[in-house]
């Protein structure tokens, strides 16, 4: 392991990936929180700032989904405070965590049915997607972007509706390709997006 070899960077990265992918793959949220308590001290010892912030952003997102809050789409609470951390993350040019902030805010806004605000986050998340190149977040960004477009479709002007449909169809084609190689990860997303396309187009 990274700890055994003294490679603290790898250790931090491994812990980060474990928790981020646990969340993305649908592991029960309370079990992620419970398990994180056993590993956060180890993560802190690595000094891996990107990994520490990434895990804290993810844990705060989970808490926002689990607890009643007046601002459920705001990443501010027990694990992460956007207002206090954002400026430092920008100074460090930590594009991974810039992406994670905007992506998780976008998803929370969609899930809590604040669709217009969710639209505003898409471009911000896309601006920093190079910080998560080669990860599960890239197809998820396309997936949620398409869902948000379907949710806002009726209020879009005619010209933007055409662009939205093109984007939605592009996301569907991407998910169809991914479903062939990994149906357990993508088939449910494909079917949901197909259903949403049918809902708006009739």
Give a short account of the largest sheet: none
Shape: globular
Q: What is the average per-residue confidence, as pLDDT, rounded to a whole number?
A: 93
Helical content, roughly? over 70%
Query: Which parts are unreliable, with pLDDT below 50 for 5 consecutive residues or more?
Result: none
Strand content: under 5%
| Strand/helix succession | HHHHHHHHHH
Terminal Cα span: 53 Å
Number of helices: 10
Radius of gyration: 18 Å
Short description:
This protein has 202 residues and is mainly α. The protein has helices spanning 2-5, 8-24, 29-46, 49-66, 82-91, 95-111, 115-127, 137-152, 158-181, 183-201.
Describe the structure.
This protein has 202 residues and is an all-alpha fold. The protein has helices at residues 2-5, 8-24, 29-46, 49-66, 82-91, 95-111, 115-127, 137-152, 158-181, 183-201. The protein is built from 10 helices and no strands. Helix 6 (95-111) runs antiparallel to helix 7 (115-127). It is globular. The mean pLDDT is 93.
